[in-house]
Amino acid sequence: MRETLESSIKETVKEIYGINIEGFTVEKPKEESLGDLSTNVAFLVAKELKINPKDVAQELAKKLSNKKMLAKASGGFINFTFSENFWREEFEKLLKEREKYFVEDIGKGESVQIEFVSANPTGPLHLGHGRGAVVGDVLANLLETYGYRVVREYYINDAGYQVYLLGLSVFCRYMELFGQEDAELKQVYEREGYKGSYIKKLAEDVKAFYGDALLKEERQKAIERLRDYAVKRLLEEIRDDLELLNIKFDVWYSERSLYEEGKVEQVINLLRERGYTYEKDQALWFRSTDFGDDKDRVLIRSDGTYTYFASDVAYHWEKYKRGFARVINVWGADHHGYLPRLKGALSALGVPQNWLHVQFVQMVRLFSAGQEVRMSKRTGEFVTLRELVEEVGSDAVRFTFLTKRSDTPLDFDIDLLKKKSSENPVFYVQYMHARIRGVFREVLSRFGIDADKEELNKFVYNLREEQELKLVKKAVSLKDSIKEAALRWLPHIITYELIDLAKDFHNYYNHYRVIVEDREVMLSRLALFKGIETSVKFALKLMKVSAPERM
Fold it and tell me: CA-to-CA distance for 78 and 29, rounded, in angstroms?
């Protein structure tokens, strides 16, 4: 619907003004009373031609109005109101085509890699990781729905100082179990190590398996052995935690493999050959200021070790060589400043600017009993993602993480999500589906009418109540909203629309009976409910949130 209107606007502007116009918006107006959709195209035309936008809006509105749609100028905006018959026709299509109504092959098999979570395997997943996991997973679902070939990838940070500290932390705890300590290692542990209870548990498991054998090994060798052991164990836990949210990855890519296969050295040599590096203070630097960064960045430190930046450039160069048409990274907001240097290095290697995209995910604040629960992986005082899922369930976690745009902070209220009321958005949306299924069961029991098999589309034209037509519009409009969420990579749009639909549905349900004496009216309302159910179930499926039969 929105795409068709955009095409009509472009054609009309070309016809009247002789110019090709791009970059205008077609979206829902802030107030429903203004119409179904609104566009700012008149302002763009007026700016280019240096004429009055009000005059442009009036001329375009007059030309764009037809039997199915009234276009009306409002200042420089044009508001569109579609006819009741248009909405009924679309709703009838929805009933006939079911889920196929929402699906389009836009991607045409284009390959897209989405890298998300990629949490350091130095501890259990927390809320921030969980939000990124859900956002990445739903983005992948959306793009697959629209014909893209998607690869879900987890980048394992299993090299460098952080995992060394992990091994050191487990070793110090392991020594404690035998009443021993190494003063030098202990000092590093106290200052920088990981202190959660999971470290002590890992140490206990090591003792049970190795006994005191590691105490007799050379210290660094023992730490490396425990580093590898702890990374493996924690990765297994991370996989299990993600599966609780029904998230699986196609590829788990090891950072260490980049070093072992010489890929970090190869990419640095490429940057050298292209003249984008120089030596200073016995370190090797990348000229990232040539690409808009605020300062140049170190690739190889003065002690000969590679920086994380070097391995990240190598990893993304490796992605590019694998042939992905585009790559989407889902990163925590604290990585915002990291993007210019990475894009700069990729540009230096000849990678197109629009190949890498990053979706930033802001922090999550957890509330319980009205109080914020603070988290710190280093001190071990944090609520794990697993604990949260076990407390409120996968549906509540997934849905809540999508209730706001990912680049804005989110408050997660455990007590709210346990309520069975309209205050709880997850319950409110799922209850909409459960209520519809309950009506269908009753109609089948009492009248033998199977709403899942009955041809209800022919009764759509009996829907004439204002609230019925409002629900028809919102069920149909989910198609545009889901498509917008996919193409703009903004999955929260779907959640917002579902909550809005639920509000109107429950209001209708509380004021109108479906099972009435007039069979034609009953069948038309069953048609209404069937269309809503189809839309809601499809949207929830994309979010991997269940559509319960009963609640």
Answer: 10
Joined tokens for residue 195? 């202190």
Contact 184, 201 (CB under 8 A): no
Quick: pLDDT tens for 253-284: 999 999 999 999 999 999 999 999 999 999 99
DSSP, collapsed to helix, strand or coil, labels residue 444 as helix
Rounded to whole angstroms, the Cα distance separating 462 from 522 reads 10
Q: What single letter denotes the amino acid at residue 430?
A: Q
| Residue closest to 38 by CA, chosen among 91, 89, 74, 84 | 74
Q: Are 224 and 165 in contact (CB under 8 A)?
A: no
Place of tokens 């997934």: 398
Cβ neighbours of residue 210 closer than 8 Å, sequence gap 6 or more: none
**Dihedral sign, CA of 74, 77, 78, 81?**
negative
Question: Residue 112, SS3?
Answer: strand
Q: Tokens 């909409």 map to which residue?
A: 432
pTM of the model: 0.92
The string of pLDDT tens digits covering residues 514-539 is 999 999 999 999 999 999 999 999 99
Handedness of CA 40, 41, 42, 46 (dihedral sign): positive
> Is the CB of residue 545 less than 8 Å from the CB of residue 398?
yes
Report the pLDDT value the prediction gives residue 406, as an integer from 0 to 100: 96
* Helix extents (H) in 181-280: 183-192, 197-210, 219-244, 255-260, 263-273
Residue with tokens 């044009």: 78
d(CA 288, CA 343): 9
- List the end-to-end C-alpha distance of the chain, in Å, as a whole number: 34
Instruction: Look up residue 187 and give its two tokens.
Output: 């000092």
SS3 27: strand
Report phi then psi at 281, rounded to 5.
55, 40
Whole-number CA gyration radius for the chain:
28
Distances in Å between the alpha carbon of 119 and those of 127, 157, 419, 507? Answer: 12, 7, 31, 43
Give the tokens for residue 197: 């209870």
Interacting residues of 434 by C-beta distance below 8 A, sequence separation 6+: 548, 549, 550, 551
Q: What percent of the chain has pLDDT over 90?
A: 92
Residue with tokens 């299509």: 93
d(CA 363, CA 146): 29
State how far the Cα of 139 lies from the Cα of 306, in Å rounded to an integer: 33
Give the separation between CA 118 and CA 138, rounded to whole angstroms.
Answer: 16
Q: How many residues does the chain have?
A: 551
Q: Residue 468 to residues 69, 435, 509, 529, 535: CA-CA distances in angstroms? A: 19, 16, 10, 10, 15
